[in-house]
Amino acid sequence: MHIFIKNKKLILDKYRIKCAIGKRGIGNKKREGDKITPKGKFKINTILYRKDRESHFKSEISKIPIKRNMGWCDDPRSKKYNKLIKLPFKYSAERLYRKDNTYDIILVLNYNCNPVRKGRGSAIFIHVARKNYNSTLGCIGVSKRSLKKIIKKINKSTIVNIN
Asked: Phi first, then psi: what are they for 127, rounded to 5°?
């Protein structure tokens, strides 16, 4: 199973889904905060989700409920860079438990994971897009309804091909 992302469209089987991408488009990600969605082929490591908002989906990909104290380290100075962390945290981190619905469901891509290269970018996810599909900081955003469809189709061997 492959997911293709090109020209602000996510393609999965017969589905053509509108998506948001990084403000500076798709390309070779050079550094943290460059607002580029990284070009390449990635697997989906984990599904993070808000159990109080979304609990009725099945997947062979490991699922972790998002708790109030969960974050994702985006600070290259930390040994936990580009990893799930517990808040409060000494370094900069993105809060995963949010008031809006952006992180109700997150597909964590294995970008910059093995090995982690400090400063090369972190927290590259497929998550819920804002209503107007505004650009992201490098993630891919789709509607919540589309994200639920995607989860039904993906498995551990799914490749996300971004170009």
From this structure: -140, -175
pLDDT score recorded for residue 12: 97
Tell me, what's the pLDDT at 55?
80
| Tokens standing for residue 95 | 């809060």
12 is written with which tokens?
Answer: 């999965």
Mean pLDDT, to the nearest integer, of 120-131? 98
- Separation between Cα atoms, residue 163 and residue 157, nearest integer Å: 19
20 alpha-carbon distance from chain centroid:
12
Question: What's the token pair of residue 30?
Answer: 């050079």
Which domain covers residue 47, as residue numbers? 2-162
pLDDT at 91 over 90: yes
State if pTM tops 0.90: yes
Kindly report the CATH number assigned to the domain that includes residue 140.
2.40.440.10
Q: How far apart are CA 126 and CA 53, in angstroms?
A: 17
